[in-house]
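User: Sequence in, structure out. Go.
Assistant: Echoing your sequence, followed by the structure tokens.
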Amino acid sequence: QSPIDFAKGTNSGYDASAPRTVFNYPDLVSDGTLEVINTGHNIQIQWGDMPYDGEIVVPHRGAPDSNVHDVLNYDASEITAVARGYPAQFHFHTESEHTMEGHY
């Protein structure tokens, strides 16, 4: 990650017809094995063998050399497959290194 300063009027290039990565995060209920870890930079929640049905679906071309970031440049007609990921943890932190018009 590199710090980014989003200038006023920045155009995100949003295209409603573009392929979308889908995040499916159902409620997370601890079975007693959930760990909350303060790493000093963020708060991380992770689960070991606890069953969790969270899923991330990333559309791609299906080529062996496909890169996850390539989806940003795809046309919907180019999508031939999806990759599925299953999260093992999530984390959050307060201050960002990114700014909006020079402000945090």
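User: And one key feature?
Assistant: Residues 17-94 form one domain.
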